[in-house]
Amino acid sequence: MFTSIKTKHIVSSCIFMAISLFASTSQAQQSLTVYTAGPGALIKNLASGFESETGIKVNVFQATTGKVMARLEAEAANPRVDLLISASWDTAVNMEQRGLLAPHHSKNAVHVPEQFKANNYIAQGITALGIVWNSNSGTPEPKDWVDLLAPAYRDKVTMPDPSLSGATLDLLLGLQQADPKGAWALLEQLRNNGMVVSGPNAQALTPVLQGAKAAVFGGVDYVTYNSIAQGESVKVIFPTSGTVIAPRPMMVFKSSKRQDEARQFIDYVLSEAGQKTVADAWLMPARSDVGARRPLFKDLNVLPSEQAETGTERSDTLQRFNTLIDRH
Hints:
Elements: H1 2-30, E1 32-36, H2 40-54, E2 58-62, H3 65-74, E3 83-85, H4 89-97, E4 101-102, E5 121-134, E6 157-159, H5 166-178, H6 180-192, E7 196-197, H7 201-210, E8 215-220, H8 221-229, E9 234-237, E10 245-253, H9 259-269, H10 272-280, E11 284-285, H11 311-324
Parallel strand pairs: 1-2, 1-3, 6-7, 6-8
Antiparallel strand pairs: 3-10, 4-10, 5-8, 5-9, 5-10, 5-11
Helix pairs in contact: 2-10, 5-6
């Protein structure tokens, strides 16, 4: 009898372990891996909302554009990512040309303007580049890029590093396309006036928040709006001569074994709840029917620009910039 009870206990334990292992394996198969160059709080809130709605766990790697792209390159032979949210539209264009992306047409894309969607990718939200000015710096309020060349701004301007910020590289490309000679002359004059290139967006903003510097050339707007909401004395100024906007594309990889879950995540981000979360992070929503507490792209003087057809233009622009500031 004792042996019978013991045998039943062992059998029951084995069944319980098998069920637990199956459940664990099933959950792992349904979990989704997302890489993003966007704000950490935003992806955390989106992942939480998505998991609450669907029960699908989201594993997130969030970092600067440079670090995200470096990880993708390192994992090229054995991809782990299911869904990428990039800070640069050209990233999606390039990956589509390389045949890496799976198609997706979201049911919630009807209110997304055509310029912010394609067969294999669609904008999560949109940012714009501008001047971030410390109103307590004792410098005159700038209205345009060239105002930062004034003697009052000597040694008082920072700029995000375009090798680490996809949005800043988009700004260089946009200015170059709008006025090839004028853009590089402006950058050279800014360098000669003491502009410092200071790492990714947050690192370029910090000395301006602290008052050590007066302005950021090419600051990403949402980072600053968040600082303003926390009581910082800074202002986002969109230059009168024009600036660029940076839609942040979401894309599903062909290599992913969780394409269905990735598509569900995109649908959630483009839902009204998802887009409100995007707006709460101070980005412009991708959907035109969802409002925000900040200017939208239709309110800005946006420079006409064409997306780079290959990665060569981006690489060449970055190399020219590095040469300009004498960085090798």
